[in-house]
Amino acid sequence: MDALVNKRIKQVLKGDKDAFAEIVDLYQHRLYQVCFRMLGNRHEAEDIAQEAFVRAYINIHTFDQKRKFSTWLYRIATNLCIDRIRKKKPDYYLDAEVRGTEGLDMYSQIATSDELPEEELMKLELQERIQYEISRLPDKYRSAIVLKYMEELSLQEISEILDLPLGTVKTRIHRGREALRKQLSRQPHI
Amino acid sequence: MNACPERIVHFMHEYLDGEISREHELELKSHLQSCEACKAHMHELSDVVAFVKGAAHIEAPNDFSHSVIARLPKEKSHAGVSKWLRRHPVLAAAAMFLLLMSGALFTNFNDEQQFSFTKQENVVVEGETVIIPKGQVVKGDLVVRNGDVRIDGELDGNLTIINGSAYMASTANITGTSEEINEVFDWLWYNIKYGAQEVVSFFEKEEAK
Question: Does A170 contact B at CB distance below 8 Å?
Answer without folding.
Answer: yes
